[in-house]
Amino acid sequence: MAQIYPIDLTRHPSPFHGGWNPLQPSNDEIQRMCNAVRNEVQIYERRIFQVFRAVQYRTQVLSWTTHFIKVYVGGNEFVHVKVHKDIEKNVHLICYVSGKTGSAPIMYF
């Protein structure tokens, strides 16, 4: 009979390939990624954001790392962006979701 061993997710928050890392406050690297995709999001949204400030993020690690970032864009509005940083450190916008609030959790999209 197989043994089942519990995994302490506080010590190993993303133990499996493809798992989510815990929600973290933004940092300078995450803000740089947001700055890199800001114009592209503005083009798709057909508007200019007065502010585009990363607030929180989580990552998903596969053969690459995908960043899901909550971005404050002014007023009571947030945008969630999904970005990928390639091996050459180029940042790519995968997709985004607009019309979010500050309390909206970062979910897979």
UniProtKB/TrEMBL annotation:
Its main location: cytoplasm. The keyword Cytoplasm applies. PANTHER family: CYSTATIN 14A, TANDEM DUPLICATE 1-RELATED, CYSTATIN FAMILY MEMBER. This is Cystatin-B-like. It holds the Pfam family Cystatin. GO terms for molecular function: cysteine-type endopeptidase inhibitor activity. InterPro entries: Cystatin_dom, Cystatin_sf, Prot_inh_stefin. Residues 18-88 form the Cystatin domain. GO terms for cellular component: cytosol. It is found in: Cytoplasm. Belongs to the cystatin family. Keywords: Cytoplasm, Protease inhibitor, Thiol protease inhibitor. It comes from Pelobates cultripes (Western spadefoot toad). The keyword Cytoplasm applies. Gene3D superfamilies: 3.10.450.10. It comes from the Eukaryota.
